[in-house]
Amino acid sequence: MAYLGNAPARSFISFEKQVFTIVNSQTAYTLSHSVVNENDIRLVVNNVVQEPGSGKAYTASGTTLTLSAALVNGTDEMYCVFLGRAIQTVNPPNASVGSAQVADTLISGKTALASEPDDTDEFLVSDSGTLKRIDYSLIKGSGKVLKIDAQTNNTRATISSATSKTTMLSGTFTNVQASSKILIDVKMPMHTMNSGVSFIGFTWNSVDYDSAIQYTYETSSNGSFGSMHRSFDNPASTGSIAWVIYFKTENGGNDRPCNTLNPNATDDARQDQTTTTITFMEYTT
């Protein structure tokens, strides 16, 4: 059957309610919506439904409600329900919405975060079947990896003997968070035929760490390897941090830890060009 006007609501229906503030000796009150007559509203005084009509409890026209007798503030209570203003509500009955009523786009249709949530961002969780909200600060891990950077060097270099601190390799790393920590892994191929005593150190953020790099000392013409796996503190600011791999003799003698850094077939016809790899992992605890 055809009809004119808005389509009738077919789901949850409620009626709008207006609560009045009682004014002593006052019989006229203003309605929040215009009505044709008193039959468009149900008036309730002190939880008792009143009879509408002239000579009865009340009349109404337009936005004016007229009582047959004044009420007393602090003693009487009054509200009305607009019977002619049935509206469709978006609030279904309690516990009536289940998974069948929720579309996948309820979540997938929302804007995605492009970065880590703030500490005060909230998530929904089921706590033994009860839905609760929780701040991200309470569920995020206490430590995480911030940045990984691998630097390499495959240039064969002859190492000359020296009596003082001598640089073998150097570079920089840029930290992304102040006061974070850094785990540095060094793999450094060498070739040696030497007979002195020296150590290989590592400089991080202008601090020298003598003997930080361990290596196999060879007195004959053989390959050797320097390595380090060590954690350091980063400065209380972000920016470029200088690092240096150096060697120095313990007793001030003229010596070196190896003859060649990153050896190749020049040192041993059986091998290809070798590469030093230094891996930086910045993290928080």
Structure at a glance:
The protein has 1 helix and 18 strands.
For this structure, the CATH topology of the largest domain is Jelly Rolls
How big a fraction of the residues is strand?
over 45%
Name of the level-1 CATH class of the largest domain = Mainly Beta
- Work out the helix count: 1
Structural class given helices, strands, pairing? mainly beta
How many structural domains? 2
CATH architecture of the largest domain: Sandwich
Query: Which of globular, elongated, flat, extended, rod-shaped describes the shape?
Result: rod-shaped
Poorly predicted sequence stretches spanning 5 or more consecutive residues: none
**Counted beta strands:** 18
Q: Would you mind describing this structure in some detail?
A:
This protein is mainly beta and 285 residues long. It folds into 2 domains: 76 residues, no CATH class; 140 residues, Jelly Rolls. The protein is 1% helix and 49% strand. The strands form 4 sheets. Strands 9, 10, 11, 12, 13, 14, 15, 16, 17 and 18 form a 10-stranded antiparallel sheet that branches. Strands 1-6-3-4 form a 4-stranded antiparallel sheet, with no helix packed on it. Strands 2-5 form a two-stranded antiparallel ribbon. A hairpin with a 2-residue loop joins strand 3 and strand 4. The longest helix has 4 residues. The mean pLDDT is 88.
